[in-house]
Design a protein that fits this description.
The protein has helices spanning 19-43, 46-53, 57-63, 67-87, 95-112, 114-125, 132-155, 164-180, 182-188, 195-210. Helix content is 73%, strand content 0%. By secondary structure, the chain is mostly helical. The chain starts with 18 loop residues before the first helix and ends with a helix. Helix 4 (67-87) runs parallel beside helix 7 (132-155), helix 5 packs parallel to helix 8 (164-180) and helix 5 (95-112) packs antiparallel against helix 10.
């Protein structure tokens, strides 16, 4: 099992990439996202990524040191996107509206970023070998702060008594399910993604749960 983790950003200025280099890196990352989301890290190969990108394997290795380098780059890019909705919860806002807005944004992300969601899920299922430290330094402090905020709202009588962390886990489970288990959802929903119905259902579910 790989033991490397997502590195801290370097303070050393990097040469600015040319337009063609930026285009090719994006092409490789888009292809890798497709391959990793389908096959997971262990099942993915550089040959598959090269074929998906329409580039040669040596061309891939010109831009990235190998499969793990590509995977770590994707995870780095993903974390900022993934944590943004929680960072946008406003402590000064109405608690119910802030929680429900977070639920809806997470559901929108299942529609907008299904491959990214599966990439994240696959990494976690493997024990987070490449992003474990980032969970400690990025995700955990944010969840701790959000849980403390929810606990404050509960103490003020503005939300019903719930365990804040289990509430957060529940929101992740009920929203990311539509991306991570998309193939199953499509079968059970007769070809639909279920997201339109999920929006109203989850709004009602969490509104009833959280109303004091």
């Amino acid at each position: 099992m790989p033991t490397s983790s997502i590195p801290a950003p370097s303070d050393t200025p990097q040469p600015r990439a040319s337009r063609i280099q930026r285009r090719n890196r994006k092409r490789i990352l888009d292809a890798a996202l497709e391959v990793f989301s389908q096959h997971g890290y262990r099942g993915a190969t550089l040959d598959q990524i090269a074929t998906e990108a329409g580039l040669s394997k040596p061309n891939i290795l010109y831009y990235f040191a190998g499969k793990e380098d590509i995977h770590v780059t994707l995870l780095n890019d993903l974390m900022d996107t993934w944590l943004a909705p929680m960072r946008q919860i406003d402590p000064q806002g109405d608690p119910m509206n802030e929680i429900l807005r977070y639920v809806q944004r997470k559901l929108e992300m299942s529609r907008e970023f299904p491959r990214e969601s599966r990439l994240f899920a696959n990494e976690i299922l493997q024990g987070a070998p490449r992003m474990g430290p980032h969970l400690q330094t990025g995700l955990k402090p944010l969840v701790d702060d959000t849980a403390a905020l929810i606990e404050t709202w509960i103490a003020q009588g503005r939300l019903a008594r719930v365990d804040p962390r289990h509430l957060i886990f529940s929101i992740w489970a009920t929203t990311q399910h539509y991306a991570d288990f998309g193939a199953q959802v499509q079968v059970l929903m007769d070809g639909g993604d279920g997201l339109d119905g999920a929006s109203a259902f989850l709004d009602t579910l969490y509104r009833r749960l959280l109303t004091p």
